[in-house]
Amino acid sequence: MTTRSTTPTTHLTEEQFNDAILGLAPDSVDEHLDACVECSAEASRVRSSIANFSAAATAWSDAQPSPSTARFRRHALMVQLRPVAGFAAAAALVIGVAIPVGHYQRSAANEIALASSAPAAALSQSPVRTDHVVLVEASRVQSALHARPISRLQARTAVLVSTYTESQPAQQPPRDEIAYDNALMSTINAEINEPVYIAGETFDHTGGSVTQ
Amino acid sequence: MERTVDQTTILAFAQATRISELDDIEALIRAYRPKVLRFVTFSINDVDAAESITQDCFLKAYNGRASFRGDCAVSTWLMSIAANLVRDHTRTQKFKFWRNFRNTAADVTELGQHLDSGETSAERRMLAREQVARVQDAIKDLSPRQRSVFVMRFLDEMDLAEIAATTGMPVATVKTHLHRAVTAIRGQLRNTSTDSLRATAPNTGAKR
Prior knowledge:
The complex is a heterodimer. Chain A has seven helices and three strands, in the order αααααααβββ. Chain A has a three-stranded antiparallel β-sheet with strand order 1-2-3, with no helix packed on it. In chain A, 73% of the residues lie in helices and 4% in strands. In chain A, a hairpin with a 2-residue loop joins β1 (196-198) and β2 (201-203). By secondary structure, chain B is mostly helical. In chain B, 71% of the residues lie in helices and 0% in strands. Chain B contains nine helices and no strands. Chain B has helices spanning 7-21, 25-44, 47-63, 74-92, 97-103, 122-140, 144-155, 160-167, 171-200. Chain B is globular. Chain B starts with 6 loop residues before the first helix and ends in an 8-residue tail after the last helix. The A-B interface holds A 14-15, 17-18, 21-22, 24, 42, 45-46, 48-50, 52-64, 66-67, 69, 72-73, 75-76, 79-80 and B 25-26, 29-30, 33-35, 37-38, 41-42, 51, 55, 58-59, 62-63, 108, 111-116, 128, 131-132, 134-136, 151, 153-155, 160, 175, 178-179, 182-183, 185-186, 189.
């Protein structure tokens, strides 16, 4: 041991000194500090420095404004609801995927059934009437499938078809459906061949931009 | 008639009291926020991050209060949550930690201003501020664990066993960290004394 109760000639080791600061030193170290001016002065300096730091840090933390507990409660509620929200999102995703898939599968099944029954249906109708239905349906499907600006043209075509159909007397269906279709086709062709002006740009019947 | 209460009943009552303490979030924040904030701030030396971590700490405590069995003090439980959050924070900030640490040190640079001016003389106040700054400088160079342990011991006055329980470190490791922290502070204070002596020494014209 390096301590002496009177006039010490050696000082505390680093470990002894640190233990003294930490309050873990045995009595003999305290006795040395009582007797040794140099060790005592350094211990006092270190202790007062740490004590001042602690006091300043405590005063600083006590002075910090506390955030509103209302905000904290909202946050806590959100954290509690997060798993529920995640489950709801997952459920919405599953439903969002499942419904269209189910719908698609039903549509596909209906189409297959329709296709299988189509010949019989076709037989029951006149060929001209069937062609007419196919033409109108093809126009509608193309309108939906093609990209702009062709889709714009085809949308106009569909409007023309519908307008033309509506312009016919309701009580008197066209007697000659071939004539009806021809008239419709010529109207569509005439319209399609006209350039279309969309959003400051002119497009021809192929959908290509026409330089003005 | 004298009624005696056995030890088990007292412990059960203490546990129940501790558990119910967590239900009143406002009282909990009021009572422990400064302590948690102080620990986190001086462990990571980043006030903004410390605010966020402190809030997370109370949030975790509040949301996880059902898991608190009441077998330790609420403050110990909160401090262990805070210590884990600090450890996670320093781990995720591993590569930029030291750069951030130094860059944000200005956040608490004027810590000495918070010292109570009281009845002390201007000279003593200046000395105290200087000491605060030196300790602050010294703990900057400690590892995050050493700093956390130092803050728990000297700022929150936790004993070694409590620090060990909070941090999950063995008591011997806690003691080693504290020894290093005290050595670093002694070194910093010694350097300051030498600098002060040099600064105040009369210019004799002697070359060094």
